[in-house]
Design brief:
The chain has 296 residues and is an alpha/beta fold. The chain has two domains: 234 residues, Rossmann fold (3-Layer(aba) Sandwich), CATH 3.40.50; 38 residues, no CATH class. Helices cover 35% and strands 19% of the residues. It contains ten helices and twelve strands. Strand 5, helix 5 and strand 6 form a beta-alpha-beta unit. Helix 1 crosses helix 5, helix 1 packs across helix 6 and helix 5 packs antiparallel against helix 6. The radius of gyration is 22 Å and the shape is elongated. The protein starts with a helix and ends in a 7-residue tail after the last helix. It comes from Rhabdonatronobacter sediminivivens. This is DUF58 domain-containing protein. InterPro entries: DUF58.
Length: 296
């Protein structure tokens, strides 16, 4: 299914536009978000005052805040907060598996993943961050500014890439940046594990968002059923589908546990989002998940 860039951007901006008031009300996020940038909450170059700390023997006299030190028997250094623009790289699974929906009235997994990715980009770009996109052949480098929205929209508003299941490549992500992978993660987990390991080696932190249709969770099938992959490469017929439910749900739970364990090991975060639930909650979770560790 193709997606209109204008419609996708309109939907994403509408979703993102309703989220900032919720973020302001959230105490833990408001403390870490600064106007125009994520608050890093660590010492470095910047204009915003962060904290005073006791001076050490390695601090030059020029760094001493003499006015603050005059009120104590100790010398204090005035530290500012580091506010460099953060790079966020997105990867959205565009495989055939993501075109699945268990109900024609419900968005397919790919449409929901695209919407979340672009809405997050809208928020990040408004906050002064740089956003890029991983994709085969022609990745979009992370850039800031509203002009980056249209290339992102056009890159996401495409048909499926022809593969039954997708996986992120071993792209050289900017060191100490952030990344978000959105997929059903139902294919071979090895490429995902390799990508996260490579990212962690470069100090990249981020979030895995598993997007599933509720039918894939509940497995409501009974009697004679034919299961076929979206690309037609795999096909299985059974006369008693209900007999498969327990084994299927156990394997799905194992896959979720594996993803969650991988996220913990690499310093990432993991969540599962269902297409029959409002996307705003998942977007808010993502925004918080990308906040610096000191702000969570």
């Amino acid at each position: 299914m193709s997606h209109s860039p204008a419609a996708l951007r309109l939907d994403a901006e509408s979703l993102a536009g309703g989220l900032p008031p919720l973020l302001v009300e959230a105490e833990h996020l408001a403390a870490s978000v600064l106007p125009g940038a994520h608050g890093r909450r660590r010492a470095g170059q910047g204009d915003e005052f962060w904290q005073y700390r006791a001076a050490t023997g390695s601090d030059p006299a020029s760094r001493i805040d003499w006015r603050r030190s005059a009120r104590s028997d100790m010398h204090f250094v005035r530290e500012t907060e580091w506010q460099a623009a953060q790079a966020i790289t997105l990867w959205v699974d565009l495989s055939r598996a993501m075109a699945f929906s268990g109900d024609k009235r419900r968005a397919d997994k790919g449409s929901r993943a695209r919407l979340l990715a672009l809405a997050l980009a809208v928020l990040a770009l408004r906050a002064g961050e740089r956003v890029g996109l991983m994709r085969d052949g022609a990745p979009l480098p992370a850039r800031s500014g509203k002009a980056q929205l249209m290339p992102l929209t056009q890159a996401l508003a495409v048909d499926t890439d022809g593969r039954d299941y997708g996986a992120p490549g071993l792209a050289l992500l900017p060191a100490h940046s952030r990344a978000v992978f959105l997929s059903d993660f139902l294919g071979d987990p090895a490429p995902v594990e390799a990508a996260l390991t490579a990212a962690a080696d470069r100090g990249v932190r981020g979030a895995l968002v598993q997007v599933l249709d509720p039918v894939e969770e509940g497995f409501p099938f009974q009697g004679r059923s034919i299961f076929e992959s979206m690309g037609g490469a795999m096909r299985h017929e059974t006369m008693r589908a209900s007999d498969l439910r327990a084994r299927y749900q156990d394997r799905l739970a194992q896959r979720k546990d594996r993803l969650a364990a991988l996220a913990r090991l690499t310093g990432w975060q993991f969540t599962c989002h269902h297409t029959d639930t409002p996307p705003a909650a998942a977007l808010m979770w993502l925004w918080h998940a990308l906040a610096p560790a000191g702000g969570r």
